[in-house]
Amino acid sequence: MDPRGRSCPLAYQYQPEVLAQPAQLEADILYVVGGLYGNPAALQAVLERAADEPSGPATIVFNGDFHWLDIDPEDFQAISEAVLGHHATKGNVEAELAAEGSDEDAGCGCAYPDYVGDDVVERSNQIIGRLRATAARFPELVGRLGTLPRYLTASVAGERVGILHGDPESLAGWRLALEAMEPGDPVVRRQVGWRGRPTTATELLDWFGRANVTVFASTHTGLPYAQAIPDGDHQRLVIDNGAAGLPAFAGTSYGVITRLSGDPSPPADSLYGTTIGGLRGDALPVRFDSTRWTERFLAQWPPGSPGYRSYFARITGGTHLRLQQAARGGVQLTSHSEHP
Q1: What are the residue ranges of helices labelled H in 136-274?
Q2: Which residues, in sequence order, are CB contacts of 135 under 8 Å at separation 6+?
Q3: Domains in the chain and their CATH numbers?
Q4: What confidence tens digit (pLDDT) does each residue in 268-317 have?
């Protein structure tokens, strides 16, 4: 088995205690935007939605993999410059674009678990190779991407939020993937072919305590969900937006971002959410121009290309995940949810 795309570089690893630092930012309304995947239409939709917040523009953190399918130089440059104008952390894509020497042996840096097929891993390694060729035209931007942190701690409504790309121990970790979370969803696990070590409430609470946060906001593994975790008389929250730039659910065309706020009322376009202490967490749809994105995608990744084989079916038909499966552990679908 080719280790590229499955291995996890030492530079990706850390411990939950790194999040127990003073908060790097405070916000009344915070958007956590992971997995833009090079979709300029999704970027536009996120920026417009943030500007439309009634009480003022939301603070945005892009938490990695904002690049991926944007091998067109104009798209790569525009997305880089827009993201770098906000708070951001790097994902494995940005880390590998900026990597030098032996770190490139990590391929895409996805650290795919063994239940993900070798064909998927091979295509991802081919995609990062194409993207590196584009990124090489912008050494100054790539250098700035490389200096982005691997994680951030934010304060929203008096609650501490750990913003991750992967999980509390690795930039590209899969321990917060929906399929790994207990109690396990047998349908999800069967559909992704999951096998391995489940992530239990005991382990999560250990991470929360060591990180001194109430919320873990993550992305990386592709499927969105939110799950409340009982902690004595209180609760903690894991909320993963899946991907802002790719359809999230079966039969849908929108991505998802995470919104955190001190306002206890769910926003009008909330899909699902919950209140933890003084903090409201919601999943919001990213209703980008899917026609524009599909055309842009096909211009860069025509039929037969690795990008097409990996992503066209999702772009045109969504995932296998039903919206109801994303609201877990007391998290509620909102009255505004659109059921696929």
Answers
A1: 139-146, 186-192, 201-211
A2: 67, 76, 97, 141, 142
A3: 10-333 (3.60.21.10)
A4: 999 999 999 999 999 999 999 999 999 999 999 999 999 999 999 999 99
